[in-house]
Structures are given as structure tokens and as C-alpha cells.
Amino acid sequence: MSDFRLMVREPRVPDPPERVWRDWVLLGLAVPTAVVETFVNPEIRYPVASLIVTLLLLPLIMWRRAHPFTVVVIAFGAMVLSNLVAIMLPGMIGGYTLAVLMILPYSLFRWGSGREAMIGLVLILATWFTSMVAEWTGFGDAIGGLLVILFPVELGAAIRYQANNRRQAIEQAKSLTREQLARELHDSVAHHVSAIAIQAQGGRAMAAKAPDRALEVLAVIEEEAARALAEMRNMVGALRDGDPSADVELAPQPGLADIERLTELGGNGAGAGAGVPGPRIDVELTGHLDGLQPAVDTALYRLAQESITNAVRHARNASRVVVRVVGDGERVELTVTDDGIHNPPPSATTGYGLVGMAERAKLLGGTLSAGPDNGRGWKVRAVLPRNGDAGRSTLDGAFP
Fold this sequence. Notes:
alpha+beta, Heat Shock Protein 90, 3 domains, five-stranded mixed β-sheet, 10% strand
């Protein structure tokens, strides 16, 4: 009962597409088919009325995503009425072309709300029941007709379920990335605050005996406090859902200084697997890379780590992975390229790692793109501001 209530309370799918080219093709094929059938099908005894009904109902497929419940009510309500008319005046109204409208139940269960789907299902079953009353041909045909009319319902519900699972997985990947980023920021700030506390204790001990040294300590405290404040500002927009009782490591997170250790993930280290040679990993650091915000420093390491891991695992016949980090006065650019074959591409094989990478770049005000590199290999490119300001990110080519 609780599952049924949850299904009924499920809202509409947000932002469905209005219409696509397939809708126009379907309508373009259905209309002339209906015209021809109306005058060649001997079962249609009232061709003019049948053609008018058909031409009025077929365009409903153009609004099946934006207004799924409304078009189902209109279409299947009209079918119920036509079946009732057929009971009193035997003869087919609408013809077999109206079978195109079986796409409407699919759209209702794919895009509509749970309450709309339940009401629409009652109307769909009423259409089946009245059609059986209007033209009874036996239990076999009745069961077959019921299965046919319920198939698009089941298909729409199944595809919606898969889409919901994918959406939840993407949101979970984003949430985990936010949590990891917030934890890293917290650890970095805790490191600065710990240094401030130690310096303050030393300053108190020196204040009476060596005032000049105490002033130097105050300068260090000011610098550490400024860094800690900058890190706290970077935490805006990042969510953490961790255990507050967990131990917090006060050591700084890995950064560019540690990025060359990632070469161990490839064939020039121990990370390629026993007896399985991996691609060689080369790291190139150029430009102005000093004085980065700790959050940006850590993000560059994490993005490079994820990109290298994907290349080592999924790039077939790759011989080399190149990591380049170039910095200037305003931003830092990271590119990771390989010369392997990705079929299917990483977006279909590596789960939601790219989603997490894009979310990390987004929280720091950067951009991230991923896609084929000149027809062979894969390229990940991230551009982050040196100060890690909050902004907007894009992920081009990574998801269909």
C-alpha cells in the first residue's frame, strides 16, 4: 500500500521535450494513411465521420510529452464515445490508423504524474472494455487486446524507472563529490587553524621576553588566518554529509607537488597490475603554478588522478598518457590525453566519474570538458581559476 501511495504521489517529469522530429514524421505518415484507409476499409460504414474523428485525434501526438494527461483524456475519451456509438450503430469509427494513439499511454506513464497515470489507466481500460462490448470476438481476442493496450503502459513505466535511477545516480555522484571537496577544504582549514593556535601559544611565551619576535609571530598568524578565511569562502555551495565524530586529519591534502606520483598508476610504475604493462604516464608542469589556493591545488590532483585512472582502465592499446598543467596569472589549465581506443567512450563505461569531476570543477568556478581527441584517444580538459571562485561549469561531450 505504501508503494502504491508513493507511486500516486510521484510528480511529473520536469522539463520534458516539447516535440521532436519523430513526432512530425509519425504524424506525416499517419494522416495520409488515415485518408486512404477511410475509403478502402469496408468495415468503416461512415467514412466522412470516421475521417473527421481521425484527423482531429491524430495531432494529439504532438503534445504527448508536454500535456500527457490531457491528450490521453481527449483521445481515449473520444474512443469510449465512438465505441458506445458503435454499440448502437454497428461499424468501425476511426479505423486501424488510430492505433498510432497507443503511443499516448506510453507518454503518460513516461512523463505524467502518478495521479494522472492512475486516472488515465482507468480511462484506457474503459476504452478496451467498451471496444469488447461493441465487437465481441472471444476471450482470446479480449486477452490479446488487453495485453496490446497495456504494453505501452509497461514500456513507459520501465523507461521512466531507468531514467529515475540514472538521475539519482548522477545526483549521488555529485553529492559524494561535494562531500569529498568539503572534507578536503575542512581539513585544509583545520591545518591552518592548528598552525595559528601553535603560533599564538608561542607568541604569548615570547611577548614578555622578546617583543620583536612576538611581532613576527603575529605576522605569521595574520597570514595563516587569511588563508583559512579564503578556504572557508570556498566552502560556500559545498555540502558535507559526514560523521561529525569521525577523526579529522590535519595534514594538507595532496596537490600539484604530489601529482608526479600518479605516474605509478601506469606502466612506468607499480600500478599497471602484475604482469600487465600499462601505458606510460608523463607529467608536464609549466607556467605560473605557485601560490594556488589549496582547494584548487587539491582539485587539480584529484582531476588528474581520476582521468589517469579512466585512461589506464578503459583505453585499449594505449601506450602513453600525458598530463599537462599550465598556469598563468588568472587560471590553471589541466589536460589529460591518451592515445588509446575508447569504444564505447568513457561516459558509457566509467560510471559517473565524469559527473563528479564536472561537479568538482563547478564548485570551484571552473569548466571541464571530455571527449575524443582528434579521432583517437580521449582528452579531458579542466580550467580552474587560481582563487577558486564559485562559478559555472560545463561538461561537453561526456554524456549523451
